[in-house]
């Protein structure tokens, strides 16, 4: 059995605490017991069972199972074809939110649907083992590989039209919030979400009763207004920082959107919180 571990003094947003791998003998078992952190096992070869919350899961090569903090669990290798697996212990304030996006929001096990998805999982797990033992303190490498593993376990979006529409809108609006300062086009938003512009338009009309273009402009103006209220930046700095190509066009859009010129707005609202 190989086990690598690292100690951390503070709990980060997401940290890999240790990794290991083992070729188990027939009927090799652990538990019933609990762990103080998240522990992910990925099976490379063989078979075994995993018991959690009153359920027994029969797992094989390519599958994975998650142990949550302080859950009582038990697992055992098969008699005739015992498993070989690797594991990673991790925790952090972002874990719950990250795991919500994976199959682990509904079940403690993952079974890949295709050989390519299985190969991706095994490759990323091997990379995590390698980087964790060789990264010389580069925690980002280990965290990155863990995120790649979890990305291979992302759950499917709901088949409900309403849920899919909500998902697309959230993804599009998040892209706008994160990229409004750059010269993005609505075609960039549609490409990121993975839908065409006409469908994106319908989604924004459904959720916000406005077009994606107007939504982007409104967000840029809100961010510019916050800058004018809370900083000593120039009008040009506010314009270029919020995705406008120049100060004159920014002033024109700003007056149309707020009824003030940027200078008048700053004088009226300086020091306040604008939303």
Automatic annotation (TrEMBL):
<dbReference type="InterPro" id="IPR018060">
    <property type="entry name" value="HTH_AraC"/>
</dbReference>
<dbReference type="InterPro" id="IPR009057">
    <property type="entry name" value="Homeodomain-like_sf"/>
</dbReference>
<dbReference type="InterPro" id="IPR037923">
    <property type="entry name" value="HTH-like"/>
</dbReference>
<protein>
    <submittedName>
        <fullName>AraC family transcriptional regulator</fullName>
    </submittedName>
</protein>
<keyword id="KW-0804">Transcription</keyword>
<dbReference type="GO" id="GO:0003700">
    <property type="term" value="F:DNA-binding transcription factor activity"/>
</dbReference>
<dbReference type="GO" id="GO:0043565">
    <property type="term" value="F:sequence-specific DNA binding"/>
</dbReference>
<feature type="domain" description="HTH araC/xylS-type">
    <location>
        <begin position="170"/>
        <end position="268"/>
    </location>
</feature>
<keyword id="KW-0805">Transcription regulation</keyword>
<dbReference type="InterPro" id="IPR018062">
    <property type="entry name" value="HTH_AraC-typ_CS"/>
</dbReference>
<dbReference type="Pfam" id="PF02311">
    <property type="entry name" value="AraC_binding"/>
</dbReference>
<dbReference type="InterPro" id="IPR003313">
    <property type="entry name" value="AraC-bd"/>
</dbReference>
<keyword id="KW-0238">DNA-binding</keyword>
<dbReference type="Pfam" id="PF12833">
    <property type="entry name" value="HTH_18"/>
</dbReference>
